[in-house]
Amino acid sequence: MTRTQMVWAILALATGGFAIGVTEFAIMGLQREIVLDLGVSYGQGGMLVSAYALGVVVGAPILALMGAKRERKTYALFLLVLFILAHVLSFVAPNFETLLAGRFLSGLPHGAYFATAALMSAQMVGPAKRGRAIAVVLSGLAIANVSGVPAVTWTGQQFGWRWMFLIVALLAVLTMLAVAILAPRQDAPAGATVRGELRALANQRLWVGVGLAIIGFSGMFAIYTYLSHVAVEVTGFNDSALPWVVLIFGAGMVIGTFTGGAATDKSVLGTVLVAMILVAVFMGLFAMFAHVPWLMLVLLFCVGVSAANLGPAMQTHLIDTAPKAPQLAASFHHSAFNAANALGAIVGGVTIDMGLGLRAPAYAGSIAAAVGVAITLYAILLTRRAGEKV
């Protein structure tokens, strides 16, 4: 396989990440429209975020296990079909309950797709550049926040929130065509079995890594889930400015994903430690200065950069903790990421409902990231005890 073919194959896989990023994050920008249209509360609107995240948490390990022995390209295409069908259901949903079910089903293939795409990309480039290859796959999520999410948010505001689901389904169809044409076939590792993958669960480092990812990312989602409310009701922006606010956060995530990938190839847990410290600091400052428009945007950008640095590093760390079960370990990153999504949405909603104000989720997120720093130090200790590179 030539270098050019390899690049195009990885980009094709990243396109799926772009579609996933649009559906995962655009729902937050359109939450106000959905709440008003369906006549539900803010708390119920937040459940659309949590339902998707729960789907990822449930689906990632189950579908990853199902794919442990399967040829990876074919399995990636199968997961995209499931993703498309769930979005068609969401598009035609006649009520809130059906939409909630569609969101849950949409989340099921998320983690398994990213796990499969990350492993395919890492195998194509080899160990020395795997962090950067995984970053490219994950960059689809970040780039979606810069282009896809603002565009779909604007489209939803102008023509109705249902268009988001149709657009995402079409993006997934394009991804299927690109992967089918450009990605190489890639057999599962020799001797891979479901039982072997399950045996890898008896691993302290793996579970510490999962806990680290949940705690570390939850703060970001505590902010992001209620970002539209903060931007309008605290900072004072108009609704028409929300796509630009989301774009600034997304731009930070794009930069952070690529810098995090490069840093991961030098030190996996070192990257996690620095990023977690920065997340704690910037979230605290965001909460303090959310009423100052220009400063709120600068700090939101910084939160995006530092939080996105965690992505490639955490994905790589979890793969390293269970080398005999790469498919399952890789999927746990996305289970943890979306457990954090659900947790952040719930914690943010609870703090607001307690009367602590719209800044409270950011303060809670800063505290969560500080706890993440402590967990990272413990993960570094365990890695050194195992005689492995930090």
Automatic annotation (TrEMBL):
This protein's superkingdom?
Bacteria
**Domain Major facilitator superfamily (MFS) profile, first and last residues per copy:** 9-387
Record's protein name: MFS transporter
PANTHER family named among the record's database cross-references: CHLORAMPHENICOL EFFLUX PUMP RV0191, PURINE EFFLUX PUMP PBUE
Q: InterPro entries this protein is in?
A: MFS, MFS_dom, MFS_Efflux_Transporters, MFS_trans_sf
Q: Does the keyword Hydrolase apply?
A: no
Q: Name one GO molecular function term.
A: transmembrane transporter activity
**GO CC terms on record?**
plasma membrane
Origin species, per record, is Nesterenkonia natronophila
UniProt keyword annotations, A-Z: Cell membrane, Membrane, Transmembrane, Transmembrane helix
Tell me which Gene3D superfamilies the record gives: MFS general substrate transporter like domains (1.20.1250.20)
Protein's membrane topology: Multi-pass membrane protein
Q: Which SUPFAM superfamilies match?
A: MFS general substrate transporter (SSF103473)
Which CDD domains does the annotation name? MFS_NepI_like
**Residue ranges of the TM segments:** 7-27, 47-68, 75-94, 100-121, 133-154, 160-184, 205-226, 241-261, 268-288, 294-314, 335-356, 362-382
Task: Give the subcellular location.
Answer: Cell membrane
